[in-house]
Amino acid sequence: MIDSYGRDIDYLRISVTDLCNLKCRYCMPEKGVNKKNHHEILRLETIEKVAQAAVKLGINKIRLTGGEPLIRKGIIDLVNRIAQLKTKGLKDLGLTTNGILLKEYALQLRKAGLTRVNVSIDSLDQAKFQTITRGGNVQDVLDGIKAAKEAGLLPKLNVVLIGGFNDEEIEDFVYMTLEDDVEVRFIELMPLGEAANWDKKHFLSGTEIMNRVPRLIPLPFKGHGGVARLYKLPNSKGKVGIISPLSSHFCHYCNRIRITPDGKLKPCLHSNMELDIKNYREEYLEKFLMDGIKCKPLKHCIQSNDYIPIERNMNEIGG
C-alpha cells in the first residue's frame, strides 16, 4: 500500500496486550496499569483476521508486541496461525519481548513459525537492570537470548539509551558483537508517556555511540529496509545499530503502522491520532487498514515548539 506521500507501507506492528511482567520506568507507571475488561482487548481471532487483511493489501512484515506478548494466553497458537500467511505473501513474522519468558517459549515460537525476536535489555548490570525494570532479573533475559539463538530465532538486542543510567555500558554492549553474531541496537529515549517529563539530560543522541566507540565502521544504509543505521567493529561477527527517531528522524521512509491492544490503529507513533476498529464491521478490515495508511502524516513534530506528548504509555501502544 502506498500512502499519501508515496511511501510503501508494508510493515504492521500488532500489540497483543498492554500488560507486562516488568514495569520499566520509561514505559509504565510504578503502580502498573489497570487491567482492561476482556471485551476491551482484541480477540486473537480478530488479530488473525487483521493480519490476513493486511497481507492481502501487501503487508509482508508483521511484528507482535506488547506490553509483554509472551504473557498473552494463546500466543503460540496465534503465531502459528499468522505464520500460515507466509504462503500468501508474508515474509517476516517477528516478536518483541523483554526476554523474561523467552527461555521457556523460544523453541515453541520457532516451531510455530516465528522468524525472529527482538529482545529489550537496557543494562547488563543486575542492580541497574533491577532498577530500570522495577524488579527484573537480567540473567533471565540472557538465558532467553541464548535459547532464542539455539532455536534459530536470530535475536536482535534493543537498548534504550538513557543518559546517566546506561550510557556507561555503551562499550560493553558494543563489544558483545566482537565474538557473537548478534545485532545490538541502541534506541534514543523518546519523550512520550512516562518519559515525557524526564530531565533533558536523560535524552542522548545516537551520535553518543560513535563518540564512545569511534572504531565503528559504517555499513551501507538500506533506507526503507530498516530504521537502524548499521555499524560494525573491525573483524567483528555481529553488528551495531543506531536508531535515532529524535536527532535524525526517518519519517520520509517510514513504512509502518501500529495497532494497539484495544484495537486502535496509530498511523504515527508520535501522534494522538487513532482509528478505532470498533467503527468498522469485520468485513471492512481492509478499509480500516487503508484508512489508517491514508492518515499517515508526512513527519512527526517532536522537535517543534508546540509539540504535545502523546497520551498513551508505550505499553499501551506496542514498541
UniProtKB/TrEMBL annotation:
UniProt-listed Enzyme Commission number(s): 4.1.99.22
EC class of the enzyme, as a word: lyase
Pathway: Cofactor biosynthesis; molybdopterin biosynthesis
Radical SAM core domain boundaries: 4-220
Binding site for [4Fe-4S] cluster 1: 20, 24, 27
Reactions this protein catalyses: GTP + AH2 + S-adenosyl-L-methionine = (8S)-3',8-cyclo-7,8-dihydroguanosine 5'-triphosphate + 5'-deoxyadenosine + L-methionine + A + H(+)
Cofactor comment: Binds 2 [4Fe-4S] clusters. Binds 1 [4Fe-4S] cluster coordinated with 3 cysteines and an exchangeable S-adenosyl-L-methionine and 1 [4Fe-4S] cluster coordinated with 3 cysteines and the GTP-derived substrate.
GO biological process: Mo-molybdopterin cofactor biosynthetic process
Protein's name according to its UniProt entry: GTP 3',8-cyclase
Gene: moaA
